[in-house]
Amino acid sequence: METKLAIIVRSTEIDVNGHVNNAKYLEYLEWGREEWYETCELSYETFGALGIQTVTVNININYRKECKQGEHLTVSCRPEKIGNTSYVLHQEIRNEQGELCADALVTSVTMDSITRKSREAPAALRKYFI
Q: What is the DSSP string of 63-80?
């Protein structure tokens, strides 16, 4: 399942170079992942009931094109692959013209809420990676 989240670049997201600061792209990606989790009905409460949390352990991002104030962007998120305890989401940020502004592979691990150790990804998450 792929989700898409529409956002508008705000003035507070612009750096001294007149474009979106690199750290803001990571925030946009996080918003996109949260949209994916919510659409898949994998909220914090759902994971909590399963006794797990998810932790981002790696983000490999490519900055492709600058984004400027007032631009309308779309942040997409889709499942890429899943292992025993880790999984990868593929994300893209595109502008109104459909140009790729950034893309990333985000690796997360499912962690036991009590022991704080990695734990097998639940079926509720796995079903989206088929």
A: E-S---TT-EEEEEEEEE
